[in-house]
Amino acid sequence: MIKEWFHRQKFVTRRSVEAAIFLLFFFLFFGGLAYKMSLPKMLNTFMQTAYHLLMETVFYIMAICVLMGAISRLLTEFGVVRLVEVMLRPLMKPLYRLPGVAALGAIMTFLSDNPAVISLSKDKHFSHYFKKYQLVSLTNFGTAFGMGLVVVAFMTGLGFAKGALVGVTGAIVGSIVSTRLMQRFTLKAYPELDTPVCEGSEGDEQQISFKSEGGIFLRFLNSLLDGGKDGVGIGLAIIPGVLCISTLVMMLTFGPSGAEGTYAGVAYEGVPVITWLADKINFVFEWLFGFQTPELISFPITALGAVGAALGLLPHYISEGIVNNNAIAVFTAMGMCWSGFLSTHAAMLDSLGYRKLISKAITAHAIGGLIAGIAAHWLFVLLAMIF
Length: 387
Description:
Strand content: under 5%
Low-confidence stretches: 200-209
Number of helices: 19
Helix content: over 70%
Number of strands: 0
Distance between the termini: 78 Å
Mean pLDDT: 84
């Protein structure tokens, strides 16, 4: 009884301390913004930015998600995904040290989003082709291509097709680094995971079937509608990230819009803390990624939480005239690699029963995302020199 009482008191004390610390940081953050901008203008900017992002960016991204969802379902229904998977199989082992069927994970996450690889990894018909350390590294491999089709379509729609295609190549480089690092970290810490998920099945390369029923017209119509419905789900899922994360990031990236540094309380104003910090070491970002202005670093930072939220920054970047094809290449590469992987890695490894490897997966993928951005930049520079 006494032990229970002490345990309860300890819990209450810990929660009280947590609440006090949260309130301290909450009031410091918004108090600092209000002090600099004034409270009414800060609140108005906060709401105006969220509203403009919703109307000008979110619905545009959602429309792309619906169209790309329909297209991806058609590609799956009529065998294109199967064909691409078969073509990519020979590359899996030399590049990623994975069985050929792993290509399906990259294709599905590219066509949809990171959760696709979670459902695949838990499918026994799919996972039994892997060794245990390979199945764990599938987290890094699959999430390196998350929402790739939506990201590429969005960038292309803004007129940066060349940069987007170079960015996809950078993402592939980053995925190789991330996957290989994860495998290395895992085997070094837990060498016993170098065993098949199911004894006697490793190396089996049977076909995974995509069953289709009904006539061609009915399959076409159902795929179109079901894929579009999936796209609506993805579009709705990105709304909180865009409105909450992008609004906060923008308010810490861009400064006042009025003359002589005055605030007007309109959308896309703020206190440029991120820009000020990035400007101190911008020579590093310029060499690594080719960023000409420190504001651009906000994109990869936002992509860590959600790539959909990061896409919300682009229209304002374009209106400010600070984006070029090189930046788009880096954004595409890092956006695909870092497409909200912090939450996906934790969820997937926890569902597989390997929670102890979460920190290793995150570390490997963070490095892979950086390499993806660097590779995209220097590949773009090389292509610019050749052509």
